[in-house]
Every structure is written in C-alpha cells, then in structure tokens.
C-alpha cells in the first residue's frame, strides 16, 4: 500500500492489523492523525516505511522518478542491493 495523498483515505486500524499479520507492507507519506503523535503504533509497525509528508512534484521529478524506479526494479530482478535503503537503527 502506498499513500502519498490524504491520510484519512486509509483505515489506520485495519492497516495496523494487516501489517502485524504480515498480509501487507506499506509506505506512508501521510497519516491520520498527522502529525503522527509520539508513541503511535504506526511508528513501530512491521513492514512500514514512513516519510515526513515530503512527497511532491517539481520540474523533472517524473522523469527522475521513472528512471530511479526502473533502476531499482532491474537491481531487484538481478538480485543486486537496492539503492537508498534505510534500515532500523540508522
């Protein structure tokens, strides 16, 4: 699941349950509530990437993003390490 639009379009409780059960992975640039309070369960949810509401559009972004996505897909298919991976405890 990828949400970079509006936090309220995702049922946070259902998402948390699905993440804990390993049925889904997610990347959220927006949350409900936002900002996400300290101690909220999303901070520790397995299989979740959180970004601080930084998704957006700028000149040339679509072209760069498409190139990056293609490169990441090729790396994955070749069994190579992905770029820009942030691990817990960074």
From TrEMBL:
Residues 1-55 form the D-isomer specific 2-hydroxyacid dehydrogenase NAD-binding domain. The keyword Transit peptide does not apply. GO terms for molecular function: NAD binding; oxidoreductase activity. Keywords: NAD, Oxidoreductase. Coiled coil: none annotated. InterPro entries: D-isomer_DH_NAD-bd (IPR006140), NAD(P)-bd_dom_sf (IPR036291). The keyword Cell membrane does not apply. This is Dehydrogenase. It comes from Thermus tengchongensis.
């Amino acid at each position: 699941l990828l949400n970079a639009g509006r936090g309220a379009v995702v049922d946070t409780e259902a998402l948390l349950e699905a993440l804990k059960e390993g049925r889904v992975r997610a990347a959220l640039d927006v949350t409900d509530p936002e900002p996400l309070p300290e101690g909220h369960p999303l901070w520790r949810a397995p299989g979740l990437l959180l970004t601080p509401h930084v998704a957006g559009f700028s000149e040339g972004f679509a072209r760069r993003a498409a190139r990056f996505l293609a490169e990441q897909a090729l790396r994955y298919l070749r069994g190579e390490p992905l770029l820009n991976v942030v691990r817990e405890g960074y």
